[in-house]
């Protein structure tokens, strides 16, 4: 219960059904809510607020959305009609890919293709781990949510479909990163800025060395896997025209450089790779395939437009601006969760929340807020 109208409605309901005498309600909403928020964000060991890239993304979309999903963990009541939630499918794909990458990493051999196809070793690895993950789901993915026997049986029946999609994805992945060595997989990293009461925390899906890239043959490339659509160039970077809304890559680059190179800029490239679309979205740097006569190239805005780590692009985009904006967003979040009145949660500025965010939000039926439509959105 976040707003006055919700609270009044709830207490009127309890009076009507004579529940008031059997329950004790804590009407000090702010005290209870603040305690729940701090239990979620505060790290007792570091004595600081933990901030992840996903936290910043959801909070900047809408503070209430972050509160409902992360702290209050509001979920829709279900009779298991949805046999396999898309979230679980993404988790399954990620788990299989992580296991295969770890196995390839252990060989010490770079990613490669044999002609236009993945080597037999890769096929065997995917087949083995696909069976292991699906046959032992949800335990194999460290999920505690109970699954019905029908859900699990349906999942097993689609095993060949998952394997086929994964092999298509990995063929494309090896084409773009042919010759790269896997330096880490699903690596947890954190960074504590000096003088701050918060710290960054995250996991790097995959770090590659000597990326298949004409301009960064000696650098690191960070890959974040996405099940479906990847964030765009505009969403992932701070520019003169727009503020970035997805903080993942800026955070991952920051985390990597402060963890492994003492803050020295050392990441030459970073981007997303869609599993289902089997295609990359390079945000930092420019990917170029090297393994076939037909050389594919991925640039965000054209053949000669790509973003380097330390130099502004031809269109004036500077990656350091994204690093600065990341710090600003983290500081704003830390301030919001420590606010004694929780103003950003109980009285959010809805003029800064887009119509699209509200109308697509899974919590709009309980939020009961009225969104505004700007002139730009009407046009």
How are the SSEs placed, and which strands pair?
Elements lengths: L3 H13 L12 H13 E2 L4 E4 L1 H9 L1 H9 L14 H22 L12 H16 L13 H9 L1 H18 L4 E11 L6 E12 L10 E7 L6 H4 L11 H13 L6 E8 L4 E6 L2 E2 L8 E2 L20 H20 L4 H4 L8 H6 L3 H4 L7 H4 L1
Parallel strand pairs: 2-4, 5-6
Antiparallel strand pairs: 1-2, 3-4, 4-5, 6-7, 8-9
Helix pairs in contact: 3-4, 5-6, 6-8
Task: Write a compact overview of the structure shown.
By secondary structure, this protein is of the alpha+beta class. The chain is built from 15 helices and 9 strands.
What does the model show?
By secondary structure, the chain is an alpha+beta fold. It is built from 15 helices and nine strands. It has helices spanning 4-16, 29-41, 53-61, 63-71, 86-107, 120-135, 149-157, 159-176, 233-236, 248-260, 319-338, 343-346, 355-360, 364-367, 375-378; strands spanning 42-43, 48-51, 181-191, 198-209, 220-226, 267-274, 279-284, 287-288, 297-298. Strands 1, 2, 3, 4, 5, 6 and 7 form a seven-stranded mixed β-sheet that branches. Strands 8-9 form a two-stranded antiparallel ribbon. α3 (53-61) crosses α4 (63-71), α5 (86-107) crosses α6 and α6 crosses α8. The longest helix has 22 residues, at 86-107. The protein is globular, with a radius of gyration of 23 Å.
